Amino acid sequence: MNLAVELAPRRKQGLLLQNPVMTASGTLSNGLEATRIFDVNRLGAIVSKGTTLRPRAGNPQPRTAETPSGMLNTIGLQNVGVEALVRDVAPVWATWRVPVIVNIAGESVDEFAALASRLDGVPGVSGIEVNVSCPNVAVGGMLFGQDPKQAAAVTSAVVRATTLPVVIKLTPNVTDIVAVARAVVEAGADAICVINTLQAMAIDIRARRPVLSTVFGGLSGPAIKPVALRAVYQVAGAVDVPIIGCGGVSSGEDAIEFIMAGATAVQVGTATFANPNAPLDVLDGIERFMVDAGVSDVRELVGAAR
Ligand SMILES: Cc1cc2nc3c(=O)[nH]c(=O)nc-3n(C[C@H](O)[C@H](O)[C@H](O)COP(=O)(O)O)c2cc1C
Question: Which atom of ligand 1 is nearest to the CA of 193?
Answer without folding.
Answer: 19
